[in-house]
């Protein structure tokens, strides 16, 4: 299904006055098959603060202990996921919300003990997504995974970076596009200019020099992994009106990584 478009909606843009959800419904009506992977980092941090649970990041990834994992799952698989599904339905879209735990969709192992319950995806079970797409639905995926050891799950939930999840899903589905909607126009060069295109070698250089840092690291890494399988990957400003529609237009915006 080469008409699949995987869209990662960042926690930094959730709730903003943009046209992302309208664009998703428009693309669905045009016959494309959009799939959403969402974050919710800002709301997670807010809830953690309200419960006096400290939080910190390493290489753009949230360190997740047992208490913070409860908040992560509640916010991502609960509130954020269902609000997105409800909003898409109100706009006339057909959407179904699920997490990476449902159907064993996202299978992961512990990424690094220092990060706590943070998962590194080892396999994507595509059948739940393919069935929803074939039925004309927009899957809305919360990036929570189940820990997988050997031939089966352990029952342990893991927090997975939404950028990483989106890249893995796009690659597994053989999607045509992978889109990261964020709150910046794209990847900047050392002199602050937005780069229209980046190669793997250029990404490596910008990361080594520290130009690409923080939360941008998992985005470009996910783009590289997906593009290696033939997916066209782009990072763009989701706050810009009809930003998502530009992906399939003759004049795309943002930074394309191939």
Write a concise synopsis of the structure shown.
With 258 residues, the protein is an alpha/beta fold. The protein has helices at 20-29, 41-50, 66-90, 127-134, 162-173, 200-208, 216-227, 243-246, and strands spanning 4-9, 33-38, 57-58, 61-62, 95-99, 106-110, 119-124, 138-142, 144-149, 152-159, 177-182, 197-198, 232-237, 255-257.
Describe this structure in words.
By secondary structure, the chain is of the alpha/beta class. It has a single domain (4-257), classed as Carbamate kinase (3-Layer(aba) Sandwich), CATH 3.40.1160. Helix content is 35%, strand content 26%. The protein contains eight helices and 14 strands. The chain has helices spanning 20-29, 41-50, 66-90, 127-134, 162-173, 200-208, 216-227, 243-246; strands at 4-9, 33-38, 57-58, 61-62, 95-99, 106-110, 119-124, 138-142, 144-149, 152-159, 177-182, 197-198, 232-237, 255-257. The strands form three sheets. An eight-stranded mixed sheet has the order 5-8-2-1-11-13-14-12, sandwiched between helices. It is globular.
CATH arch. level architecture: 3-Layer(aba) Sandwich
Overall helicity:
25-40%
CATH class: Alpha Beta
Give the termini distance in whole angstroms: 20 Å
Largest sheet: 8 strands, mixed
Annotated CATH homologous superfamily: Acetylglutamate kinase-like
Q: How many helices?
A: 8
């Amino acid at each position: 299904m080469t008409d699949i478009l995987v869209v990662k909606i960042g926690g930094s843009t959730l709730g903003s006055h943009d046209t992302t959800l309208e664009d998703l419904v428009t693309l669905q009506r045009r016959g494309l098959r959009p799939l959403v992977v969402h974050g919710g980092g800002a709301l997670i941090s807010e809830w953690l603060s309200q419960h006096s649970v400290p939080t910190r990041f390493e290489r753009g990834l949230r360190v997740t202990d047992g208490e913070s994992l409860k908040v992560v799952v509640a916010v991502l698989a609960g509130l954020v996921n269902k609000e997105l599904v409800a909003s898409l339905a109100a706009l006339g879209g057909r959407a179904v919300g699920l997490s990476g735990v449902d159907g064993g969709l996202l299978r992961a192992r512990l990424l690094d003990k220092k990060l706590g319950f943070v998962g590194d995806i080892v396999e994507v079970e595509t059948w739940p997504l393919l069935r929803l797409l074939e039925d004309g639905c927009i899957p809305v995926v919360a990036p929570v995974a189940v820990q997988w050891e050997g031939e089966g799950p352990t029952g342990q939930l893991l927090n997975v970076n939404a950028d990483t999840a989106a890249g893995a899903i796009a690659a597994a589905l053989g999607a045509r596009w992978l889109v990261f909607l964020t709150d910046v126009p794209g990847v900047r060069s050392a002199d602050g200019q937005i780069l229209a295109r980046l190669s793997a070698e250029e990404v490596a250089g910008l990361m080594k020099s520290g130009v690409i840092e923080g939360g941008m690291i998992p985005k470009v890494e996910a783009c590289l992994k997906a593009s290696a399988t033939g997916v066209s990957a782009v990072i763009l400003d989701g706050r810009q009106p009809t930003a998502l529609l530009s992906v399939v237009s003759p004049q795309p915006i943002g930074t394309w990584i191939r």
